[in-house]
Design brief:
The protein is of the alpha+beta class. The chain is 27% helix and 21% strand. It contains ten helices and 17 strands. The strands form four sheets. Strands 6-5-4-17-16-15-14-13-12 form a nine-stranded antiparallel β-sheet. Strand 1 and strand 2 form a beta hairpin. Helix 2 packs across helix 7. It is globular, with a radius of gyration of 21 Å.
Length: 377
């Protein structure tokens, strides 16, 4: 292990976190006088994972939050990361898309049992795999059998030829049409970003508006998420520059100027750690976005998906500290983690302007012993 890395140390039944040579006692990360401990953690994790920079945020049961940042928001000229830097959140956007669809269902604008083709142009619906058998519910649960538009290199070739195009959900329908289904709709889980592109097309059709305005009206403004939007050009000054191996030469480059889905329902949202904590509380704790029945469906109408289950735009599972709901997101040059612990009414968000270069556990996973103490027996 490299000096200054992060590891878990078990002493009898007591779990501590080793950060940069320090043992951090359980639950001390909640105390106001220990912000330096969270700062040490994020700095150590960045070094261990080989990330350019990151911000981590914790929201506590009383609604208070703690933020810490480390590394660089920009490599040249060097700009230190700040707590209020913006990041693409990638697939965390899918939780928001699911929320809007559930709101529209609750208001009677659509039914989750509607076939996908009902809400598509008449010349498109029959050309979508399972278009007349897959339902909106199947889209939400990644259970439609519709192939992923990101399979192969075609979309990325389009991005390379027009890197600031400003792709719209409806523009990607040709990449989804005329393909064979992977399986019978509703029978199992299989991740496909096409499901959420189609949900984006549906919600824009129902609302007769662009997705930017819909999300602003239904999510961002009600939760005072003032720093959250879809991606735009020119890039905001507070956007942490995203770094990735864009040309496959093993070197990280600034890829922030490539639009790989700025206005798409599967991953185009830009946010801060603080705003994502506000989203977590507004959705799961305060009931500002969904009623209890809709939230129950979102988190309990699930299909087995690897080590957990997939609900509506999120994963559900069990940790050593009880249930956890959330998702991981990736966007070109960015990565994100989002976890809500319903038993503790606590949220953790980790946003980075790169992807881990080393084989390390998730940032949230390593933080939990210092936050919650010894695992539940």
């Amino acid at each position: 292990m490299k000096p200054g890395g992060c590891k878990l140390v078990r002493i009898g039944c007591l779990v501590l976190v080793m950060m940069a040579g320090m043992l951090v006692a359980p639950v001390l990360l909640r105390a106001q006088g220990n912000a330096d401990l969270l700062q040490s953690y994020v700095s150590s994790y960045i070094r261990q994972a080989g990330l350019p920079g990151a911000v981590i945020g914790i929201s506590y049961p009383d609604g208070g939050m703690r933020l810490a940042s480390g590394g660089l928001a920009k490599a040249a000229p060097k700009q230190p990361m700040r707590d209020d830097h913006l990041f693409y959140i990638g697939s965390l956007t899918k939780m928001m898309t699911s929320v809007v669809i559930l709101q529209l269902a609750a208001e009677g604008w659509l039914d989750l049992s509607d076939p996908v083709a009902k809400w598509l142009p008449p010349d498109v619906g029959p050309r979508i795999a399972n278009g007349h058998s897959a339902t909106i519910r199947d889209l939400l649960r990644n259970a439609s059998g519709i192939p992923d538009y990101l399979d192969g290199d075609f979309f990325f070739e389009l991005v390379g030829s027009d890197p600031q195009h400003g792709w719209r959900n409806a523009e990607l329908l040709p990449l989804i049409m005329d393909r064979d289904p992977h399986f019978r709709a509703g029978t199992r889980y299989a991740n496909s970003n096409s499901n959420y592109i189609l949900l984006g097309v549906i919600l824009e059709h129902v609302e007769q508006d662009d997705i930017e305005q819909i999300f602003a009206k239904r999510i961002f403004e009600p939760l005072a998420m003032r720093d959250t939007s879809f991606g735009i050009f020119p890039r905001p000054a507070r956007l942490a520059r995203g770094y990735d191996d864009g040309n496959g030469d093993g070197q990280l480059e600034d890829v922030s100027e490539f639009d790989v889905g700025d206005r798409l329902a599967d991953g185009g949202v830009v946010s801060t750690a603080a705003d994502m904590l506000r989203f977590a509380r507004g959705l799961f704790a305060d009931g500002k976005l969904l009623g209890p029945n809709a939230l129950k469906r979102m988190t309990e109408d699930t299909l087995l998906a690897g080590d957990g289950s997939y609900g509506y735009g999120l994963m559900t599972g069990e940790s050593d500290w009880g249930s956890v709901w959330g998702y991981d997101g990736v966007y070109f040059g960015y990565s994100a983690e989002f976890s809500w612990f319903p038993d503790q009414k606590t949220a953790i968000v980790f946003l980075s302007n790169g992807r881990a270069l080393n084989d390390v556990p998730r940032a949230t996973q390593q933080l939990l012993p210092g936050l919650f103490g010894a695992p539940q027996q």
